Automatic annotation (TrEMBL):
Domain of life: Eukaryota
Organism expressing this protein natively: Spinacia oleracea (Spinach)
Keyword DNA damage: no
Name of the molecule in the record: Two-pore potassium channel 1-like
Gene (UniProt): LOC130470105
Transmembrane segments: 6-25
InterPro entries for the chain: EF-hand-dom_pair (IPR011992), EF_Hand_1_Ca_BS (IPR018247)
Keyword Ribosomal protein: no
């Protein structure tokens, strides 16, 4: 009887350990693949189409904020819908349509 209890506990614990080992291997593979993808996104050469796509305000210039948004979308950290929603929120706060937020804009929205 003691041997059976030992074998059952041994099988359960070894199965759990093996499953955890495979989980760690999968996690390691996924992390390496994600890092490789991020490295590719950050080091690839930009094209004219990338610049046009990144220019959110159609002024033929890509600002630092537009570049960051473009890279975040490429990294799949945010979606176009997220950007649209945030831009709409910004426009609602920008009471004087100056494309900047000032203390006066904030006071006017309260």
């Amino acid at each position: 009887m003691g041997g059976r209890i030992f074998v059952v506990s041994w099988i359960l614990s070894s199965t759990i350990c093996l499953a955890q080992f495979f989980f760690y291997l999968t996690e390691l593979y996924t992390e390496r693949r994600q890092k490789s993808f991020l490295d590719w996104v950050l080091t690839r050469k930009l094209t004219h189409a990338d610049i046009q796509a990144a220019d959110l305000d159609d002024d033929n210039v890509v600002s630092a904020a537009e570049f960051v948004i473009m890279k975040l979308k490429e990294m799949e950290k945010i979606t176009a819908e997220d950007v649209t929603m945030l831009m709409e929120c910004f426009r609602n706060l920008d009471a004087d349509d100056s494309r900047t937020l000032t203390a006066a804009d904030i006071v006017n929205t309260e």
